[in-house]
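Reopening this one. Same input as before:
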Amino acid sequence: MAEPPVDHEIEVIANKLRTWRGDWKLSKGNVTCKTKRSTGDKAIDAIGCDAMVQCIAPIAPQFVALGESKLPKDEMNRRADALLKDAGIGECVVSRREAGIAALAAARRSKRS
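Same output, byte for byte:
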C-alpha cells in the first residue's frame, strides 16, 4: 500500500524549524523563551518557543524550588537534567512542535484557498 504524499507545506515548515534555536528561562516563576537563531519566519520561530514554554511550564515550580536550594552548581545541573528527563520534556516538545507545524500549515493553506 502506497503512503500518502507528504504535505509540502508541513515539510517546508519542519525543515525550517530544525534550524531554529532558542533558550528558556524562569522569570518570576514564569517560563519565558527567546529565539537565539531565527528561521527567518516569525510564525515558525513561535512554534519552537511555544513548545518549550508549554512543556516546561508545568514543572516550573520544581525549577524554582531547585534554584532556591543553594546546591552546588554541578549538583543543581544534574538535578535539573533529571527533572527535564523525568518530565518527558523532549517527547513533549516534539509533540507540541508537530501540532504547531500542522496548525501553521493548515492556516497557510486556508489563506491560499
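So the earlier flakiness isn't reproducible anymore. For the record, The chain is about 65% helix and 15% strand.
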